[in-house]
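mind reviewing these tokens:
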Amino acid sequence: MDKFKKYLKYALLLVLLFIFVSIMSKLLIISMYKPKECTVLFENPKIEIIDSKATNANGYIYGCITNTTGSTIENKFIKLDCYSEYDNNINTGYAQIFKLEPNESQYFTIKYKCQGTERVEISMSDTAPDYLLNPIDIELTQTQKMALLFGGLIVIYYMPVGYLFGLFPF
């Protein structure tokens, strides 16, 4: 009975340590992101930057574009240029506007990875290189996450005995 209580205490300490490390790492990552100023180089359509943050290695811009032109905007791109302290263009990102009716709004997110970004400029573009487009930004729902978890458990359950160095001898 004493051994069981000792193992139970170790398991509880392990779970508490896991929770503590998870919370502290999340807080540390969040504290590394600092607000970044963005310059919008056009007036129509109107772009409102909701959130713009960056670390020394990557960043993101979350915003809303509102069509104030009076005509439908189709197949245009929001272009993001990252500049270094010496005014060198070090990265370019794009977000596609599929169809935007007059006075309609659409939210967008542009994520970028580059070091040494000092300023960010946003402009409009008619075309974008295919290799720079990121049309699918995968965000998993809770249902999809649970399906992946159960799928992984099923794979582990039906794994042959001795597979993966004998770690899963079911």
In short: The CA atoms of residues 62 and 109 lie 5 Å apart. Residues 34-132 form a domain with the Immunoglobulin-like fold (CATH 2.60.40.10).
